[in-house]
Amino acid sequence: MKRIIFWSALLALVLPMASCKKEMMQYSGMEGIYFAVQSGPSYSAPATWPFRPYTNIEFVKQPASVTQLETMIKVMITGPVKDYDRPFRVEVNPDSTTAQEGVHYLPIQGNYTIPANSTFGYIPITLKRTADMLNENKTIGLRLVANEHFGLAFPKWKALPDLANTSLGNDTAFDGRLHVINVNDLMVQPAVWRGSIQPVNREAGVWGAFTRKKLTLMCQMFNLKYEDFSSEATMTPVLVTLIHQEMSRWLIIQFNNGTPVLEDDGRLMFVGSVPWTSYIGVPYN
Amino acid sequence: MKRLILIILIASGSFLSACFKDTSNYVYQDINEITISGIAGAYTAVFNRDVLHIEPIVKMTEANTDASRFNYYWILVKGTRVIDTVGRKQVLDYAVNVSPDTYVLTLRVVDNVTGLAWKKGTSLTVGTSYSTGLMLMGTAENGAAEVEMISMGNDTSIVHGILASSGLPTLYDPVTILHTGTRDTNSNYARVWVMTKSGSYYLDRKTMTGNTSRRFSSIIAITENLDKENLNPILLAPQIRDRAGNTGNTYSRAMMTGEGHIFATSTFINGGDFYTNPINRSESDFNHLIKSAPYLFYSIGNMNSVMWYDTENNRFMNYANFGLGLFSTIPSDLPADAFSWNQAATGRTLVYGENTRNTDGGSTNGNSFTVMKDAANNHFIYKFYASTATPQKRDMYTVLPIATNFAQADFYAFSSRRSVVFYSVGNTLYAYDYNKGFEKAYSFPEVSGDEITMLKFDTQIDHTTNALYIATHNPGTKGRLRRFMVGTDPNTVTISPVDRSDWNGLIKIKDMNWRAVN
Q: Which residues lie closer than 8 Å to B186 by C-beta, 6 or more apart?
């Protein structure tokens, strides 16, 4: 009995000492690799952007002189960093690829490295601007391949629900082994477009509905670039007025000269104060 | 044994405190403590005029003769942003040149021996001499354009040399200085324009400083093939119409450049004071810009349209669609009209034009007047209501030969309250009552003597008083500005000087405009 008391007292003496020492739990698990491409809105910090299974390359946002563009696809690793370079392998996934090698992108050499003492690396992909991208989106699917250095981490990636909740979409749950590059030259409606479509398909506002033909014409007439429509700093209200005024006048002159400017569907091009009404899909005759 | 166990247990408890480190220092000593007094709770100063002088009392607990032991910093802070260190001595003498606003001014005394800083704060409100008063544009003694202001804040004072210290290059051929009106704090809506034929610039409204990038070219978006960089406005509509600084239209504006081009805008549509292509053209000949005479006609009380005079075809044109219209229209005549908008057939040309608050014929917001002349040098006065898309003609008067030297006049000024036009030739002031059948001519030797450099009726501060401003100049006493009241007796024209409205030692005044807001 006395011995029990003695030993328990001794334990009570020794055990608190151990409480002064702290130790972190080490990572234990696969040494793996996964796609770590982040994207998000410009108002938030890039570090807070969610991981995405795709990269969008829009040639329309580049000057016309840009015919080829290199994008860097980021990958990250799980497991400890090493003090030597480690190779990893990636290949094109034919299931999710519509782009042609050599036409829409330069051949992918397949072997890349995670540098020594780094937790991440990049896959450089060179994309080419082609005429067929004006009307069609091309995709390049990428697939990581396991080797002796890395397994494949996160086949079921899912973003933490509390992290940047508001900007998360469905695409934040995906397979971390796969990645898709969307590349196109489609002219989408820019951030600043002062026009709208009213029921039923009637063009309204100072610029009417967005069309590539109309925007290209604006760029020609007013010596603008697609990028100028990307913010109010470059597309100022007074410039909006000028485009509205001068383009309406020009369209009316063309109409009166018997050379009306038509959209692709045959309707009269509409800008603000022209005297006609244009309906999308209804040709002028 | 039990006692031993008890001791061990108690001891084990005391071991726990070993985890706590004592880093305290128990050696205390007195240091030099500083208290700052003699600084008031708040100071006010006028920007670019006052020198802020503060003599604080700095008391220390230890006697000290080594001045180098202490550093003094007078630090000016706006919110959380440090603006500047405005003094590095104990006594502050600061020529206030910080943008007018309210600041916190802190004296920080650093004791270099102890490394401690002691501070005391106060608030500093920097006002401006420029908020209210008469802005004068004219010529300085060196021949350059210069701006002065008769500042009418709490007390009246004259600010000299505004343009010389504005940071702008030396300008010549002064035209005017004006405030666009509106109380908006956004610099894209309200501007102060310095207009000269050698260049027009808009200034920072608080500090009245400028730089060469603040040209008209920076606020226009045009496709017209014009020399954009050299467009210099000489005229703006609408003018200030009351003491509080309001104008006849908050959103509509028109500006004319020295070449006679007219730019019109709706600040509401265009997101501020920005302009597109000029409107001095007709629809039928759209690609030809017509040279306008340097006048814009509109009703001061409410500007809903603006008329201008086509010097190529000798006709009046109208523009009533601010922000949307791309061209001006040719107003139509009625058979019974006193005159035609198109003067080509009469052979008359425009000599002078002015907007007033004359309400003859029901022109609530003010008639406009022009002086016309024909090839035989006969002069005529046209009175019309430049309002809406259908402006109205009110009357036409033939100037009789009794109006001495009317044709030679340097300046004209139409009264808003009476059928009287004042004019000057050299140093002589005349008046002519154009009331049909009762025409009379007057001259005023009492104001003559010095060269008259400006005649202007007050339509900007209080148009009901019929006050006439006369600027004169002589090389000895320099520029002089006086305010006179025009008598109300309809049988005669008299003017009487207004008490305390005589300012001397000014520039050679070319034009003046009222300013009531910053």
A: B272
Q: How far is CA B361 from CA A129, B364, B394, in A?
A: 71, 9, 6
Min mean pLDDT across A25-29, A138-142, B69-73, B233-237 is at A25-29
CB B272 within 8 A of CB B220: no
* CB contact at 8 A, B403 and B387: no
Encode A214-244: b = buried (16+ Cβ within 10 Å), e = exposed.
Answer: bbebbeeeeebebebbeeeeebbbbbbbbbb
Q: What is the 8-class DSSP label of residue B50?
A: -
Q: Is residue B338 part of a domain?
A: no
* Minimal Cβ distance to A245: which of B8, B272, B326: B326
With CB atoms and an 8 Å threshold, state whether A17 touches B272.
no
DSSP string, B398-466: EPPTTSTTGGG-SEEEE-SSSSEEEEEETTEEEEEE--TT--EEEE-GGG-SSEEEEEEE--SS-GGG-
Stronger pLDDT, B70 or A14, i.e. the higher one? B70
Reference B91, options B120, B56, B124, B43; nearest CA is: B56
State phi, psi for B255 to the nearest 5 degrees: -130, 145
Q: A18 — contact with chain B (CB < 8 Å)?
A: no
pLDDT at B366 over 70: yes
**Which element (helix H / strand E) includes A239?**
helix A237-256
| Res. B349: pLDDT tops 70 | yes
Confidence check: pLDDT of B29 > 90 = no
CB contact under 8 A, A236 and B274: yes
Q: Which domain holds residue B97?
A: 34-127
A249 at B interface, C-beta within 8 A: yes
Q: Which of A19, A238, A249 sits opposite B270 (nearest CB)?
A: A238
Cα gap B416→B459, rounded to integer Å: 8
Residues of A in contact with B272 (CB under 8 A): 237-238
> pLDDT of B388-426, one tens digit each?
999 999 999 999 999 999 999 999 999 999 999 999 999
pLDDT in tens, B72-111: 999 999 988 999 999 999 999 999 888 877 899 999 999 9
Nearest to A245 among B8, B11, B276 (CB): B276
How far is B279 from B265, CA to CA, in rounded Å?
Answer: 10
A250 contact B CB<8A: no
Encoded tokens for B168: 């702008």
Q: How many domains is chain B partitioned into structurally?
A: 1
What CATH number does the domain containing B42 carry? 2.60.40.10
Does B384 fall in a domain? Answer: no
Q: What is the mean pLDDT of residues A60-80?
A: 90
Structural domains in chain A, CATH included, are: 32-184 (2.60.40.1740), 187-285 (no CATH)
Residue with tokens 């005529």: B380
- Average pLDDT score over residue span B332-351: 94
Indicate whether B51 belongs to any domain.
yes
Q: Please tell me which residue of chain B has the smallest CA distance to A16.
A: B16
The rounded distance, in Å, linking the Cα atoms of B245 and B251 is 14
For the record, the structure tokens of B198 come out as 């050698």
CB A121 within 8 A of CB A114: yes
Residue B360 within a domain: no
Sequence-ordered strand ranges (E) for B141-237 = 145-152, 156-159, 174-179, 192-196, 199-203, 233-237
Q: Which residues in chain A touch residue B271, judged by CB atoms under 8 angstroms apart?
A: 236-238
Instruction: For residue B276, give the nearest of A9, A19, A242 by CB distance.
Output: A242
